[in-house]
Amino acid sequence: MVEFINLTPHPLNIHDDEGNLVILPSSGKVRVKANYTRVNTIRGVDIYTCEYGQVEGLPAPKNGVLYIVSGLIKNAVPHRKDILAPGELVRNEVGQPIGCRGLRQ
User: Fold this and answer.
1) CA distance readout (Å), 13 to 45, 58, 71, 86, 87
2) What pLDDT digit, counting tens, does each position of 82-98 carry?
3) In this predicted model, what pLDDT tens digit does every residue of 37-96 receive, in sequence order?
4) SS (H, E, C) 65-82
C-alpha cells in the first residue's frame, strides 16, 4: 500500500470528480532557498529578481511513500519520482481556494 505524506505547511483538501474529498494533514515543512536581488526601482517600488537554490527538509526516497510538496518544490527536484504536487485548484462560489483536484506528477 502507498502512503501519502503531505509536506506542505497546511492540510490538503483533495477533491475528485465524484464529489469525494480526501483530507491529508500537514506532516512537516519543506522549503527552497530563495535569493532576491534588487535590479531596479520604478516609481518608488523596488523590483527584484529571484533565484531559487537548494531544497531544505525533503526526506530521502522511501519505498511505498509519495511525498506531496508545493509546485515550486516539485519543480526544483524533477529527478524525484516520489514527489507529487497539488493538482488543479478548486475554488468555492466566491472564488476562494478550498482544495485541489487530485495530485500531479
Assistant:
1) 36, 21, 16, 9, 11
2) 999 999 999 999 999 99
3) 999 999 999 999 999 889 999 999 999 999 999 999 999 999 999 999 999 999 999 999
4) EEEECCHHHHHHCCCCCC
**What's the CA angle centered on 76, arms 30 and 63, to 5 degrees?**
65
CA dihedral (97, 10, 63, 59) positive or negative? positive
Sign of the Cα torsion 52, 56, 60, 61 reads negative
The Cα–Cα gap between 21 and 5 comes to 16
Other Cβ atoms closer than 10 A to 59: 13
| DSSP per-residue string spanning 22-45 | EEE-B----EEEEEEEEEEEETTE
CB within 8 A of 3, min separation 6: which ones?
Answer: 64, 65, 66
